[in-house]
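Replying to the earlier thread about multi-chain prediction with a worked example.

Input:
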Amino acid sequence: MSVSLPWTGGPARIAEPGEGVGLDELLLASRNHAMPAEAMREDLTPPGLHYVLTHYDIPHVDAASWRLRVEGCVDHPLDLDLEALQARPSRTVRVTLECAGNGRAGLTPRPVSQPWLTGAVGTAEWTGVPLADLLRDASPTPQAVDVVFTGADHGFERGIEQDYERGLSLADASADDVVLAYQMNGAPLPVQHGFPVRLVVPGWYGMAHVKWLRRIRLLDRAFDGYQNAVGYRLRQEPDEPGAPVTRIEPRALLVPPGDPEFLTRERILRPGPVTLTGRAWSGWGRVDRVEVSTDDGLTWSDADLGPHEHRWAWRRFTATWTAEPGRHVLRARAHDSTGRVQPMTPRWNQGGFTNNADQPLVVHVPQ
Amino acid sequence: MSVSLPWTGGPARIAEPGEGVGLDELLLASRNHAMPAEAMREDLTPPGLHYVLTHYDIPHVDAASWRLRVEGCVDHPLDLDLEALQARPSRTVRVTLECAGNGRAGLTPRPVSQPWLTGAVGTAEWTGVPLADLLRDASPTPQAVDVVFTGADHGFERGIEQDYERGLSLADASADDVVLAYQMNGAPLPVQHGFPVRLVVPGWYGMAHVKWLRRIRLLDRAFDGYQNAVGYRLRQEPDEPGAPVTRIEPRALLVPPGDPEFLTRERILRPGPVTLTGRAWSGWGRVDRVEVSTDDGLTWSDADLGPHEHRWAWRRFTATWTAEPGRHVLRARAHDSTGRVQPMTPRWNQGGFTNNADQPLVVHVPQ
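Result:
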């Protein structure tokens, strides 16, 4: 269907200097949701606390009539129902999943879209069928280059009608631990997380983890659909092609200590010794260092790192601090084994993606 | 702990004309969440889609050591663990629960707080112990007037440190269908909905449904704690005492037809006949009429009402419409058996409570 509407086409809008969040952004912020920071107390994030971003509407998918087709450049196309999928050998992977737009609302100027602060993240155990096994059974032809995943969610973006669809290279799709998940934390997928089946691509930002999966198509060329070629690109200028958004940049977040003030979410903490805790992750490599600052980044100390038992999941860190009366600004920043480190100032791009600048946390310690 | 901080005390701030939503409000909008409108397709709203508002942090409550005390003006104080509570006769009630601040962001000028549009609602089945039975066992003294419910959530609001606490009159607390719920939709309460036990007061706005309940205290006087005497009041002027916020005003919402545009959430719908559906509710009485307008309120038609099987839950309605090419603004408004009806323009108050003005829904029908 071709539509001609005021908002058809064109690049994303950039907010004017000082422009507050508009009602359109607020509606997105309200229907999608972030993880409350205190949820990082737990290793796993339950549904309702785990972040959710839905491009269009959450579709209703009937499990009894659901089918998954694997087709295109394959010698043996597959057509599976849910029972057949679940009868296959399964794997459970613990994955920290983050939205590529996390941090967008902290950019100046602000790209107008889902206005995430820093909470668009969560960690869950996803159980499903290794995609590599399924692809091997389908037997890709030598021409196969990209694998396209189609969801049942449907809508319009910059005037283009589409099913939500993302492509991965055949190599990325065949990587270890990529699964077609039908369970989250040991229970059937909640509807908002892609019931009955979603793709999970450990290490990659959320846009790759196609929900409500219904088709896998192998192409003999690079996929040039909207979400790969237009949507998730890193651009300085609106008309350049830009680089693709791929893996999760390192980030550390503190579990806010003390008690919150309702409106500002600033913290009030009794004076004395306190153990600061938090979580850090990276989709590029292992988090091997986290620094904590209690003086707004003037000085930093290395935090103690918890075990790194799960390759794709956040790592716990702790740091001790003696809170003296006054106002303090806490910060934390993660380093990973590839040499990536969180910057203190945001790296800007048109779409507001991958802003992993470290975030200040204001703490008031009364006398 | 006494704190002296910039934001201590004073009434809620009112936004300047044209002032966008600030980062403080955005953080609240991000950690709390609304129900996506398409969730109204279903009778019951699952966790993660049901709205959540938390004043402070979501507390961690250990079920094994949890206790509920019933004390104060009673002849037989009670002290129950979870097993003892769950061994008592239970009841399941289906309840539409709405935040008193739902609609706040639609007010002009806008009170600065959690900036809800219209999605702070959800319907669930709550299973638990009838409070009236428990109170009868505790045997209130003749002096008992109010019943105060204390949660485990703790923080600061306008400079006042507090556990979240709300009072009800003994009569309201003893009403039919008020339960101490330990299940939501047949499963243990999710942590964000008050695990292990919350109060459910059918018909009342969410502020009465104290989560993470840990104490019930009967007083020989009216409760004058923050959430009753200061927080949830209907005021035209900041310094007047105001009237208490109590029961849910009538509201009807449409399930958005067609497909959404990602950013604006405006709808695109193919021309032709369509069945519009929605849900309507009121905490004062039975919804007995819903009107739908497809011309921005110029003309209205009565919708067909579904059965009213659950006294406290939303009622389904349907209306047929032949969508002609063009831009249309849909509206719906509910009437209840007490004569209450949704207004077309918001009723303003300082706290931004109980704004049940009907909401326009923009639909584009291409040629």
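Residues 237 and 353 of chain A are 14 Å apart (CA to CA).

Feel free to reuse this layout for your own posts.
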